User: What shape does this take?
Amino acid sequence: MWSHVLAEGLNVLRLSLFTPRCLVCTDRLSEPAESFVCAACLERIERLRGPICSICGKPVSSNHRRQPEICGECLVRRPSFLKHRSAAVYDAAVRDLIILYKFHEVQPLKHWFAALLFECYATQIGRSVDWVVPVPADRSRRRGFQPVQSFTRLLARRLGSAYNGRILCKVHARPPQARLTQSRRLKNLRGAFAVRHGSRIENRRILLVDDVYTTGTTMKTCARVLKKAGAEVLAISLARSL
Assistant: This one.
């Protein structure tokens, strides 16, 4: 009898210790397709839906005239990209996933991110591109795991387009953008990016990819460099701050 009770106790302990759990909410992973993050946490991701600026994708007030809306920022200074779209709202749910992916290197999430971007591209952009290009990584991430490059490569495969992580490079290290005002962000990134010497991108259509679009300074700066070199630029990001 006591051996049976002990065996049951050890089995409960084994299940509690070794049952895989969601890295976000810690619930047990029970679905066959779940890997590291549960389906419920993924379903909490809020898709970014209209009405939005027809250029940068920023949410705008409803337009009853059913005409393309352009936000005030794009009217004052039109970006160098033709169109930017974000797949989701940058909230706590997305932030937790991006932190797990970028800083804890939960690499299987790259497949889910690529699928999310593909869904956004198919429904909101849908134009063929010659190359899919990631926003360049900081020097500290040029070796080993490169988060944006990893899911961008998978996105290119889904789109049937060529991936090119060498066209655009970051030539000068800059302090993190997170705590800077928009004007200081612009100054901070001045001269930071360049088209790699020998890259011929005239009359090519490029899809520029990044993880988070906050003020858009990084995306706009990269797009400006690519456009100056003769490319037509579309842009997409995983999530956008509101």
About this structure: Residues 2-18 form the longest helix (17 residues). Strands lie at 83-89, 131-134, 162-163, 168-170, 193-195, 205-213, 232-240. The chain has one domain: 48-240. The helical segments are 2-18, 39-43, 72-76, 92-103, 109-124, 147-159, 182-189, 217-228.
